[in-house]
Amino acid sequence: MTDKRFHLAWFMNFTPDEWRAPFGQGGYPWDGQFYIEMAQTLERACFDFLMIEDKLMVPETFGSDRKYSLANGMMAPKHDPAPLAVAMGMATSRIGVVATMSTMAYPPFMLARLSSTIDSLTRGRFGWNVVTSAEDLAAQNFGMDKLPPREQRYEMADEYIDVVNKLFDSWDADAVVLDREKGIYADADKVRSVDHEGKYYKVRGPLNTVPSPQHRPVYVQAGASPRGRDFAARHADAIVSVANGVDGMKAFRDDIRARASAMGRAPDEIKVLFCITPTLGETEEDAQAKYVRETTSDHFCNDVLASISAITEIDFSLYDLDEPLPERLETNGESGTLDKFQQWGSGKTLRELAAAQGGGLVSSLELIGTPASVADKMGAAMAEIGGDGFLLTTPVLRVGRRYLIEIADGLVPELQRRGLVRTEYTHQLLRDNLTDF
Ligand SMILES: Cc1cc2nc3c(=O)[nH]c(=O)nc-3n(C[C@H](O)[C@H](O)[C@H](O)COP(=O)(O)O)c2cc1C
Known about the structure:
By secondary structure, this protein is an alpha/beta fold. The protein has helices at residues 33-44, 67-72, 81-90, 108-121, 136-139, 150-168, 226-235, 245-262, 284-295, 298-312, 335-342, 350-355, 371-385, 401-417, 430-434, and strands spanning 7-13, 49-53, 96-102, 126-131, 176-179, 184-186, 196-197, 202-203, 218-221, 238-241, 271-276, 279-280, 368-369, 389-393. The protein has a single domain (7-167, 206-280, 365-434), classed as Luciferase-like domain (TIM Barrel, Alpha-Beta Barrel), CATH 3.20.20.30. It has 15 helices and 14 strands. The strands form four sheets. Strands 1-2-3-4-9-10-11-14 form an eight-stranded parallel beta barrel, surrounded by five helices. A two-stranded antiparallel ribbon has the order 5-6. Strand 10, helix 8 and strand 11 form a beta-alpha-beta unit. The two termini are 13 Å apart. The model has no long low-confidence stretch (mean pLDDT 95). Flavin mononucleotide is lined by residues 11, 53-55, 100, 129, 131, 133-134, 150, 222-225, 228, 240-242, 275, 334-337, 391. GO terms for molecular function: monooxygenase activity; oxidoreductase activity, acting on paired donors, with incorporation or reduction of molecular oxygen. Belongs to the NtaA/SnaA/DszA monooxygenase family.
């Protein structure tokens, strides 16, 4: 019998929690406790990993001002994902923790050392969401006026990954001998310099951390442009994506697998996970009413537009809410998210586009219903796509305990009853759980 199970992961932002909604009441997320409980809840539901988004600026594209972002707690404030990943990882034992870190921001040596340290602290459950940054505003915090063009960012990132891989390989797995009799901690013959001198980076090495349980973190990537997809297909263990419906998801996954094969990789080594944001209710009508209520509020519409503005550097406040977009928009930033959002040719007004994102900022599939009916739809979609799972994405960047419980204690048990997701972890290492099926 073929294994019909698929993977579940969670995408979150280290930003204010659901401070505005009646069942949110906000907390003080900055001490990490709210998010630590989130990790524990998702571990109870046997998620593969949770992934912490990151951006390195206070957005000011929407309305050419940082006022909206700050007044609404929308993508700002935002705290550093690496220490949160450690806190979450040390309060759990099986779920993977993935932090976003930009190749623009960290020198490769620092990233390799940090990742190796967190992988050891979490006993082999760390992942790195590899991003190249997508905003001039972020570049301006790192000594540049503008972000390099996409092609060059990926060229730099290819070399960057080459360097960090060399650093992870600079210690043999058995380099630590801990021989008390001979008085040897590490065998110097098993630790080498890397002496990398490339177009963009020059690094001597070796790394000064011991080999971590996974040797290197799980690499997660979200390339969407042709160049980005090649990058992801070459390096990633997991690819996260937004796509349009079942056909769009199948086409994206098939494309990634073909690119991976052409590069000599086994496509099954790569898990492709699609963003979804289910809206769950006690009954179908209840869920529908909730969806309409939530996605047609002015707050929702503005929050979606402000977020899309921030990650594409296109000011959506300049367009009429009740007209279709006048032209197909392009960005040097997050192209996949923009394409999914603008649904070019659909004739929808901007307000309709914001409401049509499936309950999240972008969702690959509209999922509205009872836990049982949504579980059926997820199972049917995955059967058609061929794999590999879903990335449950925080509803427009804010989440409260209630939504988490609906997923972990409502939806997941329905999926488990259908044999669609795991009921217990088989392995200790994140990579092993990801490749288990
Ligand atoms: C689910 C998902 C999560 C992403 N998370 C981040 C993030 O945390 N930080 C970031 O700078 N970019 C993030 N991105 C953007 C991607 O890294 C990438 O730039 C984008 O998908 C566009 O692909 P392209 O660079 O090939 O055009 C994310 C994209 C997706 C689809």
